[in-house]
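Q: I have 114 residues here and want to know how they pack in 3D. Can you give me a structure?
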Amino acid sequence: MIGYRIKVLRQKRRLSLTELADRAGIAKSYLSYIERNLQKNPSIQFLEKIALVLEVDVETLIGEETMVKGVKQDLEQEWIDLARKAVLTGITKEEFQEFQRFVEYTNWKKKHKT
């Protein structure tokens, strides 16, 4: 996701949301919406301003998604970080699988609610 990539790059450069917005000449609230993926389709002008401040090209912000058998695969760093954090806190694969089954059951139950 573009918002996540912007946030990661901003944090790597030790910039606050306000600093990045000010340097790029954009609204802090809009940048916040982008980073939180409440707004998912920023304009190319917005991306160019952000890329300039973050010292990357626009393509880096957009990122690349690969297609595997017609299914979009975009393994985001956020998921990797989440899994790593789970392991570090002591969650086992079995506990994670149990949680996943619980979520699937809850979703199934909502779907089949009469």
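Q: Anything worth noting?
A: The radius of gyration is 18 Å. Residues 93-111 form the longest helix (19 residues).
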